[in-house]
Write a structure and sequence with these properties.
Layout lengths: L3 H24 L5 H28 L9
Helix pairs in contact: 1-2
């Protein structure tokens, strides 16, 4: 099983890569600026969703001292 933390870390790496690679692709006219911005925004939203899910799971995890919601 792939954990929430593993998925969050993978999404964060993908976001970092997009932020690094996409500006070059735009400069080289291999990607439209609007497409690059949208793709980065989508991955930012995914990373934020995982961050929130991890926060909620920490609160609910009785093994971590949290109370179930």
């Amino acid at each position: 099983m792939i954990t929430l933390q593993e998925k969050a870390a993978c999404a964060a790496r993908a976001l970092k890569e997009r932020r690094f690679v996409y500006p070059r692709l735009v400069r080289e006219e291999r990607m439209a600026k609007e497409v690059a911005e949208r793709e980065i925004a989508i991955m930012e939203a995914i990373v934020e969703d995982y961050r929130r899910q991890m926060e909620r799971s920490e609160v609910r995890d009785p093994a971590q001292g949290g109370l179930p919601l």
